Amino acid sequence: MTVNYWKWVQIKEIVTTVHPPTVSFLRCPPVLKEAFTAFHPDLNFVRKFLKPLLIGELAAAEPSQDPNKNIAIIEDFERLRVQAEKDGLFKTKPLFFCLHLGHILLLEILAWTLVWLWGTGWTVTLLCAALLATSQAQAGWLQHDFGHLSVFKKSKWNHLVHKFVIGHLKGASASWWNHLHYRHHSKPNVLDKDPDVNMSGLFVLGAVQPVEYGIKKIKHMPYNHQHQYFFLLGPPLLIPVVFNLQILTTMISRRDWVDLAWYVSFYLRFFYCYIPFYGFLGSVALITFVRFLESHWFVWVTQMNHLPMEIDHERRQEWLTTQLQATCNIEQSFFNDWFSGHLNFQIEHHLFPRMPRHSYHLVAPQVRELCKKHGVPYQIKSLWRAMADVVSSLKTSGDLWLDAYLHK
């Protein structure tokens, strides 16, 4: 039976960008399996969810609609993935994640103990906020592990603990995170598909969008100054304002009462611990300041790997090339590993999102060799260079917008 190939593509994009990781392809061409295999640990279990979407099978003579995909790269990457599984790189080290959770809880206890022992003076309060912000940032990396199903063998245990960590330890929503983050992984830095590059008109990114905005005379903001107002609107406001509003809106609009209960449990615990010392308004001010500090940490870590990279419309390239064009790595060190939650290995994380992060450094040499073989750029930067590139890329994009706005 011959069917329209683009219907398969539409199904694929729905599957991998809206409803992961609960559905999969029944049968599809090899070039379509890369993202699906990357997200789903048990292909047989999830196969049943796609049965209602099966509209037929592609005829053998059906022409390819993905001419930009290099079959050699796809096959070599699949061999690398299979070898990584044989080498045990997808196996979790429970002690690693137990210690990580333990140090998060220890930071929470230390923060409260400081206030309990030495009162609510400015110095103690600032130190308390710093410890809580550190705990929140590290809990963010831990929920990321569970959200990607990279800790337990069974998906249901990853989902359950994910709700506990992101809900009770952080005061956020697992469903909200899944919906946004898997779309980002499926189409990183792809305009109109990756929610992480949807800046709601506040910023223009890359080399394509600024020119498009300029030609259309779109000026929601003075984009030629975005590298300056980024410091006012980006790091300070993302978590305290944007994320909090998104989380509440998503949970209520979707009637996600389970996530809402976990969300409420975080704030009940926080206010129970700190209202006796600071009162209600003081506790609200404390958690707001903690979110403010955490937001800076989060924005710089997550943007330095992606924002300076290529940002463009859909090109329909193979998985390896798509991920490498949108990501870069940061030099490895104990501090960089801890500070970024091992997202200094962003390339390996994007290629193998289910791989436990303690294995990234082991698969990285093989990824570099594969990239070298096929001429795919593999970028590694210092931490400070990567952060500086965030600002310089915003300036470059702003200049492109201004030129197009004035002269095209």
TrEMBL record:
It is found in: Membrane. Residues 121-379 form the Fatty acid desaturase domain. It is a multi-pass membrane protein. InterPro entries: FA_desaturase_dom, Fatty_acid_desaturase. Pfam families: FA_desaturase. One of its GO terms (biological process) is fatty acid biosynthetic process. One of its GO terms (molecular function) is oxidoreductase activity. The chain crosses the membrane at residues 95-118, 229-249, 269-290. The keyword Metal-binding does not apply. GO terms for cellular component: membrane. The keyword Oxidoreductase applies. Keywords: Fatty acid biosynthesis, Fatty acid metabolism, Lipid biosynthesis, Lipid metabolism, Membrane, Oxidoreductase, Transmembrane, Transmembrane helix. It comes from the Eukaryota. CDD domains: Delta6-FADS-like. This is Fatty acid desaturase 2.
